[in-house]
Automatic annotation (TrEMBL):
Protein name: Monocarboxylate transporter 6-like isoform X1
PROSITE patterns per the UniProt record, alphabetical: MFS (PS50850)
GO MF term set: monocarboxylic acid transmembrane transporter activity
Residue segments, region Disordered: 1-48, 237-259
Membrane topology according to the record: Multi-pass membrane protein
Record field: transmembrane: 57-81, 97-117, 124-143, 149-173, 185-205, 211-232, 292-313, 325-345, 357-378, 384-405, 417-436, 448-471
Length: 517
């Protein structure tokens, strides 16, 4: 049935329904017959950072659950590390490729995720990712070789994780504007919740059902990402077709379809335009802050995840029971649950305004130095001290990782900027655990893996902190000081607008001034 009423009547009906406050089940649906192609969003959708009188908090809760099931999942593979080694007669390096490939694909699928989000939206992409990860993990329970496990648990499940967590982070940035830093810190607690519950749950399943039965049940658990994606309705109910710009393939091919040579040129230009749009190479070349941050985060990932993979094998190799080793990961997650919201509150303090990158670099530095604690010994008390310091610094890293990126690039470019970073860091995430496995196989000591992680993290922190400081000093020298100083009251917040700035009219009456790119 097609609604043939005038668009003005549809908009008025949508506004009246929004003001009445529809019941909860009705909020799961879009604006029904009033959401036609080319229709304008209602005033509630364009003016309020929280759609539907608080629906943003439902999206935040769904994002927390998605992150708990995706980003924290590779760490629980360490629970099955010894069983997979004995089942497939694999070395440390061969076994470590399973979580390594899973984590790398989780980050490397960013451009594909960006394309799917553009064409189908965040809701459909998250649900498809949950279905893909569930199928991949369930199929892993039937594998007969370590190579098959690379494909099912590594590639398929990792790609499903990517398609679930990245759109969830992106849509959260559109729902929350004023409290975006606090929302990001709350969302990052999802990783902490997963770290505190998944290892214990995996150990329980391994004890009672073996690793094959555990993988089958974990695949069913991952299907809950589909439920979380269902509540992530789009902020604007507009046209489902993407807006066409000059750089997109269709218009280029239409304009350059006269000759075969022009068609080839058009396809090449379309490919380059799509590459620039979904991987933000232009930002990497023009935005120095984004360039420094992406390189620093990429190098940081070489040693950030590896300790979580080798903590349980390191503890069990020195005689610790496997349940106590799994408890260490659970304690790490519990500390993150309470510390990540606190880290978000601390980062919003006035003294850290405009200095989030230095707070982030300091957290990376402390996280790297904490790996030296494992070199003291492998007793429960020593490893508990390591987990405490690692978890505290990890809380700030998780809370600020996306927030710093949102401050460096504009929100419309955030998905593509995140996609390029995830592509870059997927390389170091892929080679990190296998390099650690080679180090263990050659030295027969796990502690050297933690020392190597310390070197990678510390060098990354120093690079980002020093580079941003030098960049700010250089920009400060090139800026001319104001000729006349105007005294401001204490409750007045000043925003400078340079003569070369241009005003960008946003939806509604809000105007945003862009002073630098």
């Amino acid at each position: 049935m097609v609604d043939r009423r005038a668009p003005e009547m549809c908009e008025k009906e949508a506004e009246s329904r929004a003001s009445e406050g529809p019941p909860w089940p009705a909020r799961l649906r879009s604006t029904s017959s009033c959401s036609s192609e080319g229709a304008r969003p209602s005033p509630q959708e364009t003016s309020s950072p929280l759609l539907g009188r608080g629906w943003g908090w439902v999206v935040l809760l769904a994002t927390i659950l998605v992150l708990a099931l995706t980003l924290a999942f590779p760490s629980c593979i360490g629970i099955f590390y010894t069983d997979l080694q004995s089942q497939f007669h694999a070395s440390n390096s061969e076994t470590s490729w399973v979580p390594s490939i899973m984590t790398a694909v989780l980050h490397a699928g960013g451009p594909l995720c960006s394309v799917l989000v553009e064409h189908y939206g965040c809701r459909v992409t998250v649900m498809f990712g949950g279905l893909l990860s569930g199928i991949g993990m369930a199929t892993s329970s039937f594998t007969q070789s370590i190579g098959q496990l690379y494909i099912t648990a590594g590639v398929i499940t990792g790609l499903g994780f990517c398609l679930s967590f990245q759109p969830a982070i992106a849509i959260l940035g559109h729902y929350f504007v004023r409290r975006r830093a606090f929302a990001n810190s709350l969302a990052s607690t999802g990783t902490a919740i997963g770290l505190s519950t998944l290892p214990l749950f995996a150990h329980f399943l391994l004890t009672h059902m073996g690793w094959r039965g555990s993988f089958l049940i974990l695949g069913a658990v991952l299907l809950n990402c589909c439920v979380c994606g269902a509540v992530m309705r789009p902020v604007h109910q507009g046209s489902k077709k993407p807006n066409r710009t000059r750089g997109q393939p269709d218009k280029i091919e239409n304009e350059l379809s006269s000759t075969g040579h022009q068609r080839a040129s058009g396809k090449l230009a379309a490919f380059l335009a799509a590459l620039q749009k979904h991987m933000a190479f232009d930002l990497f070349c023009s935005n120095k802050r984004y360039q420094i941050y992406s390189i620093g985060v990429t190098w940081m990932m070489l040693g950030f995840v590896v300790p979580l993979v080798y903590l349980v094998p390191y503890a069990t190799s020195h005689g610790m029971e496997q349940d106590r080793a799994a408890l260490l990961l659970a304690i790490l997650g519990l500390i993150n649950i309470f510390m990540r919201p606190l880290a978000g509150i601390i980062s919003e303090l006035h003294c850290f305004s405009g200095k989030h990158i230095y707070l982030f670099s300091g957290a990376v530095l402390v996280n790297g130095l904490s790996n030296c604690i494992c070199g003291i010994g492998a007793s429960f008390s020593v490893l508990l001290a390591f987990v405490g310091v690692y978890a505290l610094s990890m809380s700030f890293i998780g809370s600020l990782l996306f927030q710093v990126l949102m401050e460096i690039v504009e929100m419309p470019r955030f998905p593509s900027a995140l996609g390029l970073i995830t592509i870059m860091e997927s390389v170091t995430l892929l080679i990190g655990p296998p390099l650690g496995g080679l180090l263990v196989d050659s030295t027969q000591e796990y502690k050297y893996v933690f020392y190597a992680c310390c070197c990678a993290m510390v060098s990354s922190a120093l690079f980002m902190g020093v580079a941003f400081y030098l960049l700010e000093q250089d920009e400060g020298k090139t800026m001319d000081p104001p000729k006349h100083a105007v005294p401001l009251s204490l409750d007045c917040q000043y925003t400078g607008i340079t003569p070369g700035s241009r005003a960008v009219q946003k939806s509604g009456s809000e105007t945003e001034y862009i002073t630098s790119v």
